[in-house]
Amino acid sequence: MKKLFLITITCLLWFSTSFAQSYSVGYRSQTFRDADRSNRSVRTIIYYPATSAGSNRPIADGSFPVIVLGHGFVMGSNAYQNFYDELVPQGYIVVFVNTEGSIFANHDAFSKDMAFMVNAMQNENNVSGSIFQGKINNKTALLGHSMGGGAATVAASMVSVATLVTFAPTQLRVNTLTPATQVAAPSIVFSGSSDGVTPPNQEHLPIYNNLGSTCKYFISILGGAHCYYANSNFNCDFGENFSSGNIQISRSEQQAITFQFLNSWLAYTLKNDLSALQTFLSDLESSTTIAPQNDCSNTAITSKVVLFPNPTSQSLSVQISESHQFAKVELYNEQGNLMLSSPRDRVNVAHLKKGHYFVKIYLKNHSVVKKQVLIR
């Protein structure tokens, strides 16, 4: 059984690295000023898709989503190199918020720094002379580990983002649970079942349970640790050595599991890749390395939305329960290209090529995705 588990993890590691090499990783240090907080300096290190790897290299062609990343207690940027190396080659700009790194970290300030950087990077898209001018699309995610996970949660209550993802989030010295109730973005909380630094029942689950999002997932990595989301770091590992017992997987295994789900989730929420959502949900159901909790109302109402006939050659109809109000329907091909959009619940698809399609049905307050086959 253990041999099979190790083979599975090896395959996941190969998959995550072999399909994520489109861009080189460039980086630059940049300080922003928050005029609303007496011009507070917000230091960042920004990792971005570049024409070649290294410091201050030209940014690659394209328009990229932004990920604002918050660090754990007294953990520096090097601890999260695995995130930059994984995400930037896939076409994401990762902004490491490099503030409040001391043992006297101001949690309120750190949360506001992260919220500030969401809007600051969007504004950077329009700053003349900025390396990021015209390079940033309108999708942003907030990510955070440990202290940064709590800060990302509070930040997500202040600004609008496409998704919130936290890794072993901890409750801060400022109120964390009340802001969590005001988070509307689709969210994931990753938790290690053997985490003794921030015990899941005391830290991760209360934050998760209080999240106001109508679509949220709790992913408990079986035998997982607190520090293993990041690379080896003396400060974090020192604390874990004295608090976490019965860690049953390696750091590389935990990171492979994490990125298996994170990659498909970000592709869906930041790039509108509907096939990635199908992958995420399928992995969530079939994986033996996690114990998930699914509180996504989008998934809950899927069974109340019916496409017929399926397969079809001429027309497609959407049937929903009376408790939901239809808004519109969109058809995407397997490459994620929008092929048809209609405000009607019955559409003519005779002009489309045969094959497999993803159908996104918009309701009044939700949307669901279904698979559809067109034949000729």
Quick rundown:
This protein has helices at residues 2-18, 81-87, 107-124, 147-156, 177-180, 204-210, 234-243, 251-271, 274-286, 297-300, and strands spanning 24-34, 40-50, 54-55, 64-70, 93-97, 136-145, 163-167, 187-192, 216-221, 290-294, 305-308, 315-320, 326-332, 338-342, 346-348, 355-363, 367-374. The protein is of the alpha/beta class.
Q: Give the number of domains.
A: 2
CATH superfamily of the largest domain: Alpha/Beta hydrolase fold, catalytic domain
Look at the structure and give the mean pLDDT. 91
Shape: globular
Helix content: 25-40%
Largest sheet: 10 strands, mixed
The percent range for strand residues is: 25-35%
Assigned CATH class of the largest domain: Alpha Beta
Number of discrete helical segments: 10
Order of helices and strands: HEEEEHEHEHEHEHEHHHEHEEEEEEE
Secondary structure tally: strands: 17
CATH topology of the largest domain: Rossmann fold
The stretches of 5 or more residues where confidence is low (pLDDT under 50) are 1-21
Structural class: alpha/beta
Query: Architecture of the largest domain in CATH?
Result: 3-Layer(aba) Sandwich
Radius of gyration: 21 Å
Q: Looking across the biggest beta sheet, what order are the strands in?
A: 3-1-2-5-4-6-7-8-9-10
